[in-house]
Amino acid sequence: MSVKIGLVGCGTVGGGCIDIIHKHAGDFLRHLGIDIELVRVCSLSRSEAEMHGAGDLFTDDFHDIIEDPEIDIVIELIGGTTIARTVVLEALRAGKSVVTANKALMATHGQEVMDLAEEVGRELAFGASVGGGIPIIGPLKHSLIANEIESVMGIVNGTTNFMLTSMAQEGMTYEESLANAQALGFAEADPSADVDGFDAAAKIAILASIAFNTRITLDDVYTKGITSITITDLEAARDMGYVVKLLAIAHRTETGIDVRVHPTMIPTTHQLATVNGVFNAIYVVGDFVGETMFFGEGAGAGAAASAVMGDVLEVARHIQQGIAPIVGCTCTDDLPIRTIETLSMKYYIRFSVADRPGVLASMAQIFADHNVSIHSMIQRGAKEDGSVDVIYVTHVALESAVREAIDQIALLPDVLHGEPSLIRVEE
Amino acid sequence: MSVKIGLVGCGTVGGGCIDIIHKHAGDFLRHLGIDIELVRVCSLSRSEAEMHGAGDLFTDDFHDIIEDPEIDIVIELIGGTTIARTVVLEALRAGKSVVTANKALMATHGQEVMDLAEEVGRELAFGASVGGGIPIIGPLKHSLIANEIESVMGIVNGTTNFMLTSMAQEGMTYEESLANAQALGFAEADPSADVDGFDAAAKIAILASIAFNTRITLDDVYTKGITSITITDLEAARDMGYVVKLLAIAHRTETGIDVRVHPTMIPTTHQLATVNGVFNAIYVVGDFVGETMFFGEGAGAGAAASAVMGDVLEVARHIQQGIAPIVGCTCTDDLPIRTIETLSMKYYIRFSVADRPGVLASMAQIFADHNVSIHSMIQRGAKEDGSVDVIYVTHVALESAVREAIDQIALLPDVLHGEPSLIRVEE
Predict the structure, then answer these.
(1) Residue B271 has pLDDT above 90, yes or no
(2) Residue A411 class from Cβ within 10 Å (0-12 exposed, 13-18 middle, 19+ buried)?
(3) Hey, is B329 helix, strand or coil?
(4) CA B68 to chain centroid
(5) Which chain A residues have a beta carbon less than 8 Å from that of B141?
(6) A292 neighbourhood in chain B, CB within 8 Å
(7) What is the mean pLDDT of chain A?
(8) Cβ–Cβ of B288/A306 closer than 8 Å?
(9) Nearest one of B42, B38, B27, B52 to B3, comparing CA atoms
(10) Which of B99, B200, B107 is nearest to B154 (CA)?
(11) Position B300 confidence tier, pLDDT thresholds 50, 70, 90
(12) Percent of chain A beyond pLDDT 70?
């Protein structure tokens, strides 16, 4: 007897899932002995289901799926943390297993939905919530479990990586690259979730929770987006042998978990430096495996649908074989989270300052007063408003000290023209 | 009750497994609920076990492990296809699950051992047989199963990649780079399995079998090693914007599976081009997921032990939960293998030829007679023996035609000085 699937949410990823089922259901049965059948598709409009040849399965009420006793697995692809949360919780309570690509839900209500899944003895799979089609949650939960993971670090947002690549390689301004990404369908009309870093923050919260066996939520992640990055910053970085990427970073340290998202300068020789455009890559370091990296398309209908359907097939295989959920929540430890103020690293700081005597001396004195040692300083030519760009790269310094120094420089009378730009450096 | 492990083979990888168990057994229990215990270690000498603090578990007779009714999982790490095959088959017959890193065994006797595992209802896991610690077999068998895989291609032999990197970056000759690799412990005294490509061939046979759901054995893989690669070839490739890597390649084509190992020119912009030293990387293309790449340490005690113990923990988890093997053999199709003579691609061909009038004209005529169209030709300065290097890069041409042309050029009287060098080009 086939395992019955109900799909809630028929946008690009949901459409991709239908396409996979139509193209490969016969292969799944022949190769893997897994017999799945899509029996219901919930979406806002019938035309979305019709576009993928599933008009006859259409409903606009998700209860038609949750209350259908035949359905074994519910795929949740509507996103967000309101209706999606209801769908997932009600589906589990109705005894169905759930597959979701919803990173926001998992990064905020992960504990709640996983607890319920365990309580009702059903599976909750969310492999598509991070990295599009890149297998990363699977490897972290299986192949790599013999390791103590030291770091998980990556480019996990395709939109911002596409924008930064356009700015660095084609000299576009931030505004031009955003408009371009929107025109190409890589950025949404309201791009905040991407450009402000929240999408990446949700993803690193999920990855870090699995990697370090401790619950990390979206609120735990220091998050800074790319909105203040300028071409000047990218060019200066390039001249120093670096590229700027929006990195999601999580390190295990002796005093807790360091987890954050921000624009980051990495050496051009780093494996992540050549990951361009909409591609994603996630770098994992374990105590025995050493360095590993997982690369692929981080977005797009096909890639995300591949991950969703990989989960669906795995859950369906377990249902067919009568296997109870194998892997539940693995957040057994309760490790402290380090606030960013307590971290020490290198910093790139660009100030637009008044071009007059004494300014550099005052700034140098303030850095010295805060124990921030400067590795290099570059001054770039005068601009129309009479200001010059002064760029510092620090030695390893304490974040709180760097911030205090910047605040104090901002207080110098008539010195700063606009906000300083701060980019953290990861070697 | 703990799941009992017997280890057969206590070299570097086996020692790494013992180290992982000693360091992390408590973590596995706390994080994953998996309780494993190493109860017996078989090796040639007690000192190997003692080095890893397991002298009290030592035996030099593998029957002590196979005949011990307490033992649930046997780890086979002795390698080769003779005693190792006996150990694996006898362990399965004794009702134990088996974890092996043995690529030669899986690429030659894979069918036999997997059939027996299915017959006796035990698990046979071999995730460490390809790519050292890189999770690749797991993703192919789980996360990526919703795809029809189109290509699997990679750098899967660390020794030869280290040698080619040394030759390209430090100008070492083949002989120097081999001696260097041997001195550093990256190559064995008898380097044939690595430099002649057989190690890579076994690995691509395993990957292709899983990716294409069809049994491919070592004998099916066209295999050419790196022994005839010279610095001249690497320099010429670099000048043309390429690097030379020993690639293991498997493509699904309309008329069968194309599977081979040979030195390959790839553009410097390709993701695999920057994989240097002992690192490995495997590139997978699926019809929905698009391009993905998996990168990491392809060799070394820790990396391989990470993969072995990942399998051990997964099998132990199943044993604890009373789950029968979930994934058996997936080679359900019987696809034809394409011989290399039937393939068409681009070729780099270097001839050392006599430096006299008419030679180039004769060679050009022979290529034309065989329908091999030339994309570019470079002649490099005269050498001490009076010969010159003439390097052709062809347009896409049929392998058999290229070979016939080369054979015919070899028949030209007093033209060739030494063997021509042929490197296939993958764009």
Answers:
(1) no
(2) exposed
(3) coil
(4) 34
(5) none
(6) 133-135, 294-297
(7) 95
(8) yes
(9) B38
(10) B200
(11) confident
(12) 100
H or E stretch at B394: strand B387-394
Treating both helix axes as pointing N-terminal to C-terminal, what angle do B174-183 and B158-170 enclose, rounded to 10 degrees? 130
What pLDDT score does B1 carry? 86
Q: What is the pLDDT of residue A73?
A: 98
Triad A96, A98, A104: Cα angle to 5°: 145
Which residues from chain A sit within 8 angstroms of residue B303, using beta carbons? 288-290
Phi, psi (degrees; rounded to nearest 5) at A299: -145, -170
Chains A, B: CB pairs < 8 Å: 196
Distance from CA of B47 to the nearest CA of A (A): 23
Q: Which amino acid is at A110?
A: G
B143/A310 touch (CB, cutoff 8 Å), yes or no: yes
pTM of whole model > 0.90? yes
- Which residue among A4, A203, A224, A245 is the active-site one? A203
3-class DSSP state for residue B249? strand
Considering CB atoms only, which of B288, B310, B330 is closest to A144?
B310
**Set of chain B residues whose Cβ sits within 8 Å of the Cβ of A127:** 143
Cα→Cα distances A420→A97, A334, A395, B172, Å: 49, 37, 18, 48
Read off the pLDDT of residues A56-99 as tens digits, 9 standing for 90 and up: 999 999 999 999 999 999 999 999 999 999 999 999 999 999 99
Q: pLDDT, tens digit, for every residue of A236-248?
A: 999 999 999 999 9
Q: Give pLDDT, residue B115.
A: 96
CB–CB contact A133 B20 (8 Å): no
Give which of B295, B226, B374 is closest to A154, Cα–Cα: B295
pLDDT at A381 over 80: no
pLDDT, position A1:
86
Q: Note if A383 is an active site residue.
A: no
CB atoms within 10 A of CB B268: 12
First vs last Cα of chain A: how many Å apart?
54
When pLDDT is cut at 50, 70 and 90, the band that residue A299 belongs to is confident
* Contact call for residues A81 and A113 (beta carbons, < 8 A): no
CA distance A5 to chain B (A): 15
Give residue B269's pLDDT band: very low, low, confident or very high (50, 70, 90).
confident
Q: Name residue A222's amino acid.
A: Y
A123 Cβ partners below 8 Å, 6+ apart? A97, A98, A117, A315, A318, A325
- The angle at the Cα of B14, spanning B13 to B18, to the nearest 5 degrees, equals 115
Shortest Cα distance, chain A CAs vs residue B376, angstroms:
29
For B148-169, how does the pLDDT look when each residue is reduced to its tens digit (9 = 90+)? 999 999 999 999 999 999 999 9
Chain B residue closest in CA terms to A147? B306
Q: Give the whole-angstrom CA distance, residue A149 versus residue A137.
A: 13
Q: How far is CA A257 from CA A136, A202, A342, B234, in A?
A: 20, 15, 11, 45
Euclidean distance between CA atoms B201 and B107, whole angstroms: 8
Cβ-defined contact of A313 to B133 (cutoff 8 Å) = no
Residues of A within 8 A of B314 (CB-CB) are 142, 145
